[in-house]
Prior knowledge:
Blueprint: E1 2-6, E2 14-19, E3 44-45, H1 52-60, E4 62-69, H2 71-74, H3 78-89, E5 94-101, H4 107-117, E6 126-130, H5 132-138, H6 143-160, E7 165-169, H7 174-181, H8 187-199, E8 203-204, H9 206-215, H10 221-224, H11 231-249, E9 277-279, E10 285-286, E11 290-293, E12 313-316, E13 322-328, E14 332-338, E15 344-349, E16 355-358, E17 369-376, E18 383-390, E19 403-410
Parallel strand pairs: 4-5, 4-6, 6-7, 7-8
Antiparallel strand pairs: 1-2, 2-5, 3-8, 9-19, 10-13, 11-12, 12-19, 13-18, 14-17, 14-19, 15-16, 15-18
Helix pairs in contact: 3-11, 4-6, 5-8, 6-8, 7-9
Amino acid sequence: MLTYRSRPALFPAVVLLLVTVANAPAQTGPQQPAAPGPMSDTNIHPRGAFQNARLRFEKGKKGHVAFIGGSITEMNGYRPMVMEILQRRFPETEFTFTDAGIASTCSTTGAFRLRDQVLRHGPVDLFFVEFAVNDDQDAHHARRECIRGMEGIVRATRLHNPKSDIVITYFVNPEMLATCQAGKTPLSIAAHREVAEHYQIPTINLAQETADQITAGKLTWKQFGGTHPAPHGNAICAAMIDRLMTLCWSTPQPAEATMANHPLPEVMDANSYFRGRLIAPDGAKLDDGMSVQVPNWSKLKGSCRSRFSQEKLLCGEKPGAAYSLDFEGTAIGAFILAGPDAGIVETSVDGAPYKQINLLHAYSKGLHYPRTVMFETDLPPGKHTLRLRISPEKAPQSLGHALRVLYHVVN
């Protein structure tokens, strides 16, 4: 039996409740992938004690499985395939599946929305994380930002439930593919791998597997399907995850085996976003020219994705419009929609000199693009006050001075 339950939340994740019975047929989604070809275990990396989820599913007959990432997670791709694999492996287990994939978002945004999008649904038993492509091509993160986002997700999850098993998967775009074929490691993958090694988390290097198969003439980029993989490309990823489970879960467990807490090592970066949280836009103190409202998208150039179209945003469109926000933490930023009219803002924390931040993104030309911009990231712990105003300056490519805030993000 398959039922759906919607959660009333901003950019709402859909939580899927799957109740399976013994010998029930696997649910089949719209994608019907061809069986992936033979693969080696070279790009599957088991690490640590990856047994808690198995014990939970086998003995407890229940399981909360979550997925977080960008459009690759949001699409009807590897995620529903992995859901079917788990149902096949554990036909008597009642699963709750949380889909927290949001197109265009990077690991920074993921770390800040983790609490509301995933953890509030309860402790996670098995967590699949995918952000390598978006950290590369959307956010253009440096190593520090890749680590702060990914460590934020991993550490916050383990603090919430020390028994959580996690799998990090690296998908691939054309530039990353070329890097892998040249025998090098894309920056985002290298940074995420550092986090995985530090916390002893299994990884699926789909990027390198794809490069190896293409180089060997076993696969083409067209067959794989591109940055947003076709069914065949998603099936390769799902098969690698299935193989990881076989490698780790084939040996029978002793009858007395119990779930154990994962070790929590020293933090890699003290300012990683594991304390990340969202602050609703109505938490700010608004001056003239700022308002909290649902924008009239029909009168604005550029498309707005449906998940955001009815949300109230903190909005300002004229130079000089300003607001203040009191917060407590070491970092402050905003999760915004940056469209063709995105402007430049000037920010000051605790009376420091103002800094300019251009909100326009390379993908803003035809889309009100969801992105997280950080204003300050290395503040001393404690209470602070943000002051933000819209600059009279703007990027040459921008049509205006607009600011539209979905949430403020605080670490």
